[in-house]
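In full, the data.
>
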Amino acid sequence: MIHNESGGDAMPDKCPLVIIRWQDSRQPCGSWRYLSALPPTTAVEVATVGWLLRDDPDVKVVCQNVGDLDHPQNAQASGIMTIPTRCVLSVERLTEDGTIFSAAAVAAIADDRETGSARTQPAL
């Protein structure tokens, strides 16, 4: 079930598409090491894109996939990830400019970019 900040049920259109930049742990060293020889390490900055299902002081919950949107009472989500709020660097709402591209159109633009097409270059 999709929830909003107040814990109540939310319609999928109330779940904005966002990019969350956050810090995560780095892969641990896989072998024994002398403590005196540990290399300097830092956390890893991660960028996660998805629909923001929950946004509260403790966690940000996003999903990559939503389904059955024509029947909100049956809405489903998969690829659900919970990110601790204390690890979040930023949350940015993503918007569309109104232009919708098919996969074929994107591939054609990429091909034109490689050949330097005068028709496509001004749009890029």
